[in-house]
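Write out this protein's structure.
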Amino acid sequence: MNKKNSLLVIIGIFLICTRFWVSFGTVNIDVTNDIVGYILIFIGMKDLKALNSRFKKGMILSLAGLAGAILSQYLIAKSWPIPETMYSIAIGISVVFAIYFTYYYTEALVMEARIQEKSAVTRNYQVTWLLMSAGIFVHYFAFKSTITMWSILVEALIAVITIYYCFLVFSTSKQLYED
């Protein structure tokens, strides 16, 4: 693994874990597009799948997440009689894949640290992942398709936690896989 792979996966994780929507009339555009995020993750994960079984599962999940992101964008783009319901379903699909992928990626890094006998570098991973995934999950159920001041504040908090998680992953990657 090199820094490029790590950065691609980290940028992808940031894109799939955050939601920054811009609305133009009836059209919603996700500035942090999940499709782009999963493509970056897939490119970054190609070299990692040989390291351990959880990276391999993460590679498969990146493809499944890409398919889910394409389905989500279709649900949002199509004109439906009740657009709020389809928007909620689309975001729900994105949330499930984001949480599921980040779980396996976190576990893959923890497993790799154990293999290299450097478990200390991943000591706080599960807690950080739990905070990030809980924030994403609570944001989805609390606000679904509504955009309020509170939902924007929660999304900002999720962005901060996600940035912290990505920083941890990058620091660990440097320690585990120095080029």
